[in-house]
Amino acid sequence: MPNSGTTAPSRRSFLKWSGVAAGTATLLTSSTNLGMPGHGPAAAADGMADADTTFWSACVVNCGSRCPLRLQVKDGVVARVLPDNTGDDTLLNRTIRACVRGRNMRQRIYNPDRIKKPLKRVEGSKRSEGKFEEISWEEAIDLVAEKLQYTYDNYGPEAVFESYGSGVWNAHLANSGGWPRLFNLMGGQLNYYGNYSYLQVSQITKYFYGAADEQPSNSIEDSIENSKLLVLWGNNPQETRMSGGGVTYTTAMAKKAGLKIIVVDPRYSDSASVLADEWIALRPGTDAALIAGMIHVMLDEGLHDQDFLDKYCIGFDEDHMPDDAPKNASYRSYIEGKGKDGIEKTPEWAAEITGVPANQIRKFAREVAQAKPANITQGWGPQRHLNGENQALAIYLLACVTGNVGLPGGGTGGRDGYYWPITAWIDDGENPVETSISVYTWTDAIDRGTEMTAKRDGVRGKDKLDTGIKFLLFYGSNMGASQHGDINRTREILDDDSKCEFIVGMDNQMNATMKLCDLVLPDTTTSERWDLVPSEYTGDMAYEIMCEKAIDPLYESRPALEVTAAIAEKLGIGEEFSGGKETTEDWARELQAQNHEENDFIPDFDDLREMGVFRYTDPNGLYVGLKDFREDPEANPLETPSGKIEIYSSQLAELAATWEFDEDRLGDRITPIPEYVSTVEGAEEALAGAEYPLQCIGHHYKQRTHSTYGNLSFNNEAHPQKIWVNSLDAADRNIEDGDQIEVYNDRGRIQSQAFVTSRIAPGTISVPQGAWVNFDDGGTDLGGAVNVLTSLHTTPMAKGNGQHTALVQIEKAK
Ligand SMILES: Nc1nc2c(c(=O)[nH]1)N[C@H]1C(S)=C(S)[C@@H](COP(=O)(O)OP(=O)(O)OC[C@H]3O[C@@H](n4cnc5c(=O)[nH]c(N)nc54)[C@H](O)[C@@H]3O)O[C@H]1N2
Ligand SMILES: Nc1nc2c(c(=O)[nH]1)N[C@H]1C(S)=C(S)[C@@H](COP(=O)(O)OP(=O)(O)OC[C@H]3O[C@@H](n4cnc5c(=O)[nH]c(N)nc54)[C@H](O)[C@@H]3O)O[C@H]1N2
Ligand code: SF4
Ligand SMILES: [Mo]
């Protein structure tokens, strides 16, 4: 068979080296732990000889991993940050090396941007003026308690809302900081569904695979063992999974083991440059068209897996449709031009839209169909578009048409699979409020809350909202002025204090969002409190890290849990809130005891403290998505109405018929099959010579995790903010590499340096997302934050963030 990749045996040996046989339950304690001075047996031989003590800590930002850090403390000051020294370089016991961000933790702990005292907005000033006076903790706690009580009394719990925030992620204690527990004890809060990471794929998957979230593909460890081909589809692990414990490491191992890797991305990303044998450079938002063209080739040449489609799916062809479907509504009819649009989806048709030459589409289609098994893994870049739901489903569909779902070495087309860690969390209590909004529509819920409905705005649990948001919390979040769409419009909405009446923020750095708050509370960094930190997307190796309090809280900062406990005390619910626990150590001890009691292989608090990091793997072996369904679809049906994979979904057809859309707006529609939908500000509009002719995406960048670490000079020096511009587009505008350029559209204007390159598809630019905003007097953001340019318009089904869909123009800065 052509394109069969490397031979399996050489790759199998990688797993053997790890000493862990695939498919067996294994606990990997840190046998090579060097121990820690202070409470371990050995001095930190690789660290500072004169450190007083070395403490286990972690980087807990939302990059998808979580890395252990060893903080060396001298005279009460963190003098040095060292990475993990446990595990080894075998695949399932790997050393969890921190990336350049975590290793630079000292600059975050001792940053001049640290919030030092509670700050209150100066009476009579506008939020956008950012004027504050320092107040005491006692005053601050009184103020939150008073405003919270006022909101519950006057507007009810649906007026209370905590914005999404991922600055402290998956750390057992600091993740919530006790805020949801406090709100729930007071009567609840308005919920949100989804997240900024993968909102579209998380909401649409239930209609296709029946899963209530995204449907992960096989793990990369499984691919190393069993695949002939790995396709990274809008998936950039070398930059978005940078921990040594994560997918950066496993994909590098896959490459080393000789697995063939193809990257599909408008950019020649770090993953393309480090891993890829081949790069498919398509226009953003056109993946469903590329896939339609590929499936056309497969049908033409008989390369599709008809047996798989017949047995496990409905909706692919006219012989396998649900009873209520109209004629010629199947995916095959769509490809053959028998559907509503009457257009045959030839590779030439796809080439026009995607910019990928028709012959390359043919070759790629044959390659993917013939490499059996192949793991097609999607990142979340493709679904962060205005047609993101169909983008995600089309990639799933490709895995089905090639019959790869549920097989070792194959995959579902979802993001690479993982073993989720077993952990105990702070109990948030019960939220009596059932109403929820999409995570991306909180600005609407402030601006026009009572107009928002189920059928138009995706309100769930109620036909319409009864109140707008009146009390808003930003905790570990830069959503108010950096990470949400359309920063200028968002700022306008937040500036109007007749709408949202009180905004409280809690962070350890004075970010742009804090500057818009009425009250700012100084949090600690991880080094100043106790915590327990589990892994996240680290393939088949799960782990837990002990975080010790290494230094005293700086300035007047206090850990969130102690602050929420004090607010609860003030409101007369102190005992219910904390049950007698006073410090973060008390909470951590209780949680770890619970975890150890429920799962006896998990170490207790003191043992974990001794180990620093505890690794373990899934007793079921390497992760294979939908394995049970593949083995026996009758015994293990999917949670779809038919129990099968629904390539045509009657439920989606129903939503399409009953939900309300602005008919005139291109792309605002739901389709029962994963067809290509062109949208406002998409590829066609750009090609038609619109006023703003360039498609602007914003990739996740190694300098920062979103905006976190964005204010560190070392990181900025190593990886400055640069806007990727194709050489042809630059030449048309007399722009040279390194020039300062301005990027603009009707929503705003930013300035930054140009990276002129052939590493991005012509007609596309990419502004690394998360830069710290810095507006000049004329309103141009000199920081280069992409969300000055993005839109608040939502995707049709998930009502989510199409933040990679925006049209812009660029020019040399004057
Ligand atoms: N245009 C565009 N926008 C995007 C994206 C995109 O791809 N393109 N991606 C989206 C995605 S996937 C996400 S997840 C969001 C992320 O957006 P956010 O969740 O807002 O993440 P950050 O920007 O990292 O901001 C987190 C804040 O947490 C703070 N923080 C860190 N540690 C602590 C702590 O210990 N305590 C407290 N209280 N605060 C702390 C940091 O200082 C920082 O100010 O952005 C979204 N926005
Ligand atoms: N260094 C670093 N790592 C991070 C983060 C970070 O900010 N910095 N953020 C973390 C978080 S919270 C998340 S959610 C993840 C985000 O992970 P992702 O959402 O997967 O990251 P993105 O960079 O948005 O997109 C991945 C790739 O998709 C490409 N892309 C964009 N549009 C399209 C398209 O239409 N089609 C195709 N085929 N490709 C497209 C981009 O060029 C990019 O290379 O990363 C996590 N890891
Ligand atoms: S940003 Fe992620 S990969 Fe880097 S040190 Fe922190 S947890 Fe590890
Ligand atoms: Mo995310």
TrEMBL record:
Alphabetical GO biological process terms: anaerobic respiration
Top-rank taxon: Bacteria
Signal peptide: none
Pfam family, one: Molybdopterin
Nucleotidyltransferase listed as a keyword: no
Keywords recorded for this protein, A-Z: 4Fe-4S, Iron, Iron-sulfur, Metal-binding, Molybdenum, Oxidoreductase, Signal
Cofactor: [4Fe-4S] cluster; Mo-bis(molybdopterin guanine dinucleotide)
GO MF entries: 4 iron, 4 sulfur cluster binding; dimethyl sulfoxide reductase activity; electron transfer activity; molybdenum ion binding; molybdopterin cofactor binding
Coiled coil: none
GO cellular component, one term: outer membrane-bounded periplasmic space
Domain (4Fe-4S Mo/W bis-MGD-type): residue spans on this chain: 52-113
InterPro entries: Anaer_DMSO_reductase (IPR011888), Asp_de-COase-like_dom_sf (IPR009010), MoPterin_dinucl-bd_dom (IPR006657), Mopterin_OxRdtase (IPR006656), Mopterin_OxRdtase_4Fe-4S_dom (IPR006963), Mopterin_OxRdtase_prok_CS (IPR006655), MopterinOxRdtase_cofactor_BS (IPR027467), Prok_Mopterin_Oxidored (IPR050612)
Recorded family membership: Belongs to the prokaryotic molybdopterin-containing oxidoreductase family.
Record protein name field: Dimethyl sulfoxide reductase subunit A
Protein source organism: Ancrocorticia populi
